[in-house]
Amino acid sequence: MLTQRSRYALRAMLFLAEMPVEGPPTSMTRIAAEANVPRKFLELILADLKGANLLDSQRGKMGGYRLARAAHLISLGDIIRTIEGPLALVPCVSRTAYRPCNDCKSEADCAIRHAMMRVRDETARILDGTSLADATAKKLAAA
To answer: Which DSSP letter does residue 19 get?
Structure first.
């Protein structure tokens, strides 16, 4: 299940994906209001997304945030991994944070591990295959 922090990050990034590419940066106050994210949490989330090179920021009175690259080049998987870490539900199938399970007799024979690999692969396929541009286009099509 996605944490509230991930949902906030996704909402903020989806809002920024709808901003004009060549327009001015969007203030944190506006992002918080439009994406319905508490400013206190948004500040930390935007710092993480900036640290992952998903956002650029500009300081000053006319400063704010914008996507670091085009919306079609940022996937929902990029955002969730930045906020949550690995997508795998168990550590023995993680591609970025692998650890053997303490209670497993044999990884090669573990039915749970094999099922969780399929879950990880399908989850990654869908999230990595859905860009911010895809998500905002689907949102507009549904309206």
So the answer is: S
Helix (H, G, I), strand (E, B) or coil at 53: coil
Q: Which residue type occupies 45?
A: I
For the chain, give every residue range classified as CATH 1.10.10.10: 4-67
For 38-64, b/e burial (b = at least 16 CB within 10 A) is: eeeebeebbeebeeeebbeeeeeeeeb
Terminal Cα-to-Cα distance of the chain (whole angstroms): 26
Q: Measured in whole angstroms, how far is the alpha carbon of residue 94 from the centre of its chain?
A: 17
Residues paired with residue 67 on neighbouring β-strands, in sequence order: 55
Question: Residue 88 has which token pair?
Answer: 């795998």
Fold (topology level) of 4-67:
Arc Repressor Mutant, subunit A (1.10.10)
Whether 86 contacts 95, CB under 8 Å:
yes
pTM for this predicted structure: 0.87
Q: How far apart are CA 136 and CA 142, in angstroms?
A: 10
Q: What is the DSSP letter of 36?
A: T
pLDDT tens per residue, range 85-119: 888 888 888 888 888 888 888 888 888 889 999 99
